TrEMBL record:
<comment type="similarity">
    <text>Belongs to the NAD(P)-dependent epimerase/dehydratase family.</text>
</comment>
<keyword id="KW-0413">Isomerase</keyword>
<keyword id="KW-0472">Membrane</keyword>
<dbReference type="GO" id="GO:0050378">
    <property type="term" value="F:UDP-glucuronate 4-epimerase activity"/>
</dbReference>
<keyword id="KW-0333">Golgi apparatus</keyword>
<dbReference type="Pfam" id="PF01370">
    <property type="entry name" value="Epimerase"/>
</dbReference>
<comment type="subunit">
    <text>Homodimer.</text>
</comment>
<protein>
    <recommendedName>
        <fullName>UDP-glucuronate 4-epimerase</fullName>
        <ecNumber>5.1.3.6</ecNumber>
    </recommendedName>
</protein>
<keyword id="KW-0812">Transmembrane</keyword>
<feature type="transmembrane region" description="Helical">
    <location>
        <begin position="34"/>
        <end position="53"/>
    </location>
</feature>
<dbReference type="InterPro" id="IPR036291">
    <property type="entry name" value="NAD(P)-bd_dom_sf"/>
</dbReference>
<keyword id="KW-0520">NAD</keyword>
<keyword id="KW-1133">Transmembrane helix</keyword>
<dbReference type="InterPro" id="IPR001509">
    <property type="entry name" value="Epimerase_deHydtase"/>
</dbReference>
<keyword id="KW-0119">Carbohydrate metabolism</keyword>
<dbReference type="GO" id="GO:0032580">
    <property type="term" value="C:Golgi cisterna membrane"/>
</dbReference>
<feature type="domain" description="NAD-dependent epimerase/dehydratase">
    <location>
        <begin position="98"/>
        <end position="335"/>
    </location>
</feature>
Length: 435
């Protein structure tokens, strides 16, 4: 019963409703009835709470950022455990069992599907927050369900849930992709970055270090950690102590936190610095995605340029290449060395760039989209604001090439063609545009 429903396990309201009987309950009849009244009032309020926050019709795209940390998820019970076990069951001889956080996200969906396809056990976890249109996350979830991947609805900040998952399945690996993404949104809702990228990550690592056996962890860092670094291409050894956004700072913090858990507990940790990942089922908050939407709608798009009309360019990396990099990282991850929360020896600690090694100016991206959509974009050239975005990114991937066998093969033209085809299909020929 205890694990059936959890009212908010987020740090913002750590107090949990406990049903444990206290000795005061039976002192006198009067006290007992007061206690009963209080108890049922709490249950009543709790039910209202659950109804209000679970109801899909209750303003799903709320602008109140605090609402997101007040979500209720229900999990547990024999049927739920059976689904968890079945989804995580390894179906090939040397397969691995992977807990994928952020599984209903863009990269999470593709990685989960790829792992399942090759016979690995996969269990998804996602909190389905409304940072962007949750219906897209639900559609990805439906896709995963059809391929046999169960996506548990819950938060990485919920330690009880994570412990339960490890109790039900001895995961060999964790693919940690759950995060608060976006560079400019950090000015609107800074706490959500701390909540997901720092508190959530630490909570996950705490559970992983106590798990027996400890899993190996591969997780998503970001190319944004290079911040104001001007040396190109970006190599893993370059300085990453000048983040240009809170998002970048929380990802950089994640890398330092990873070092700590590796050092103290012997957790095997691999961080992947993704460079502008794009493709079908992508994130609507990314430029290539909303440029497509706005070009189809005939809306003006804002294209940033650097100082002195400098080119803003990105090392766009196609999703299938990223997936191969993720799988390569999982397959080459060594076992964690600790057990029972104690380190037994040195463990693997790695960080890799996963990029495409060919930055493309954002103006070229728009030209490719115009050709694919057979429409002219209304361009509005704007100065790049100093609120998080850097002028260019360019990955040196020689390390990932050597250690993970990573070799991107999709150029922007080819990748965008696949994206555009998906977009037009998904949004009904672009008529039902993404919100
Ligand atoms: C890329 O990084 C490797 C180290 O991983 C380094 O040896 C090489 O010189 C770098 N290449 C460039 C073009 O900076």
């Amino acid at each position: 019963m205890k694990q059936m429903s959890h009212l908010d396990d987020s740090p913002s309201t750590p107090g949990k409703f406990k049903m444990d009987k206290s000795p005061y309950f039976h002192r006198t009849r009067w006290q007992s009835s007061v206690a009963k009244l209080a108890f049922w009032s709490l249950v009543f309020v709790g039910l209202i709470f659950i109804f209000f926050y679970r109801s899909p019709s209750s303003n799903p795209v709320s602008s109140d950022p605090s609402r997101r940390s007040l979500r209720t998820y229900s999990w547990g019970g024999p049927a739920w455990e059976k689904r968890v076990r079945s989804s995580a069951r390894v179906r090939t001889r040397h397969g691995i069992s992977v807990l994928v956080t952020g599984a209903a996200g863009f990269v999470g969906t593709h990685v989960s599907a790829a792992l399942k396809r090759r016979g690995d056990g996969v269990l998804g976890l996602d909190n389905f927050n409304d940072y962007y249109d949750p219906s897209l996350k639900r559609a990805r979830q439906a896709l995963l369900e059809r391929s046999g991947v169960f996506v548990v609805e819950g938060d990485i900040n919920d330690a009880a849930l994570l412990r339960k998952l490890f109790e039900v399945v001895p995961f060999t690996h964790v693919m940690h992709l759950a995060a608060q993404a976006g560079v400019r949104y950090a000015m609107e809702n800074p706490s959500s970055y701390v909540h997901s990228n720092i508190a959530g990550f630490v909570n996950l690592l705490e559970v992983c270090k106590s798990a027996n056996p400890q899993p190996a962890i591969v997780w998503a860092s970001s190319s944004s950690v290079y911040g104001l670094n001007t040396k190109v291409p970006f190599s893993e050894k370059d300085r990453t102590d000048q983040p240009a956004s809170l998002y970048a700072a929380t990802k950089k913090a994640g890398e330092e936190i990873a070092h700590t858990y590796n050092h103290i507990y012997g957790l095997s940790l691999t961080g992947l610095r993704f460079f502008t990942v794009y493709g079908p089922w992508g994130r609507p908050d990314m430029a290539y995605f909303f440029f497509t939407r706005d070009i189809l709608k005939g809306k003006t798009i804002s294209i940033f340029e650097g100082a002195n009309h400098g080119t803003v360019a990105r090392d766009f990396t196609y999703i299938d290449d990223i997936v191969k990099g993720c799988l390569g990282a999982l397959d080459t991850a060594e076992k964690s060395t600790g057990s029972g929360g104690k380190k037994r020896g040195a463990a693997q600690l790695r960080v890799f760039n996963l990029g495409n090694t060919s930055p493309v100016p954002v103006t070229d991206l728009v030209t490719i989209l115009e050709r694919l959509l057979k429409l002219k974009a209304k361009r509005n050239i704007m100065k790049l604001p100093r609120n998080g975005d850097v002028q260019f990114t360019h990955a040196n991937i020689s390390s990932a090439q050597r250690e993970l066998g990573y070799k991107p093969t999709t150029d922007l033209q080819t990748g965008l063609k696949k994206f555009a085809r998906w977009y037009l299909g998904y949004y009904n020929g672009g008529k039902k545009a993404a919100s």
